[in-house]
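User: Show me an example of a complex going from sequences to structure tokens.

Assistant: Sure. Here are the input components:
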Amino acid sequence: MVLVHKPVAVPRITVAPGHDIHGFALEIDNTPGSLAKVLNALSRLNINVLQLLASPLEIEAPTAPVYMVVDLTGVTTPIEQILSELRGVPTVKSLEHIPPTLPGYLVDKFHFPLLLPGGLRVIAASEVVWRSILETGYNRLGAPAMETFLWYIGEGVGRSLAHHWARLLKATGQSLITILLGDGKALGWWDGEAQVDWPKSVVITLRGCWEGLYAEKWAAGCHLVRGIWQGFISQTFGRDVKLVEERCISRRDECCQFIYREEPTG
Amino acid sequence: MNQKHHIEPGSGLSVKPMDAQLTQHLKDALSLQGYKIHDGHRVVGKSGVEHVFDIVAEADGGGMHAYVLAEELDELHLLACYLKQLDTGLPITVVCSSEPSDRCRKLAEDYSLKIIVPGPSGIPSPNFTGAFSASLR
């Protein structure tokens, strides 16, 4: 089965001009069917759920926080009655109403901070921020210095990530590489695959790598990402390797490809 | 394969070309001291990034010293030089036509970069020649 990739709208900020959008922050029982009861109540009121986030911090927690964005455009039931009906659902332990900050603009004020498994905090930033970091750095420092800076930062990041995931998941070798590929995809950095024939070669192929996309203006290559993978592979296998980016979307290739090849001895 | 595809001469910073007479003076002084001169020398650093230096002086024994020429200096220029030095391992001396600020002097010291200034008129002074010779030690 081929998995069809879909972009995802992260339910942190909702923009829906001309729509009467509202947020509901609930604590519900962490039991089978609990969420379905809430959704059934909304269905009976003919309310469309635009976004939904249900994610307990611990799998066995007795309750789970749920955040949902609903579209009340054209809904005649008063908001107080909707809230009352939801509070009446037996699995709902608490409910807060989050009105839009501005008409058609709603922020999830319920969840903070953002966490990954293991309690790692995530500090997300939009494309505007990442583009600006590259643009400012390349323009102010010049390409060679910026590339060097990005690589050094990346190399350290890669080593730290390898250390973290190895400790958290007790993973080693190729499993760790699979984890970093997944980590990057989950957080929107890349969609990638790896061919590992350690110690002879490692080939990392990434599609949609943000650094390559945003460095296109300078055809600069992905120095932060190359550093991350170089540091990660070095730490994972306990040997300093050199990674070369042989293809890059910043240079109009279809993907970014980083290759390590064992150097011949003797 | 090195990351060569994207490199442009110089750091990309807005540094005006240094007076040709002064540049020639630097090269002559280095040659007199027995150094082999490389113009626009390219060095691939540990990161795989290729760096271009205005002048690289190579001693008989193979030791190398890089010179970056600048009309004016600011903090970002020094940071770029520091990154080049860190990545290539080449000691760098910045030859600056105008007197750098105290802040730049302090930053250069923190970054282990040397700055030498020819003199107020742009004509190399005896002090400059001394500092220049010292930069090679």
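The lines above are the inputs; the final block is the predicted structure for all two components together. Chain A has two domains: 13-112, 127-261.
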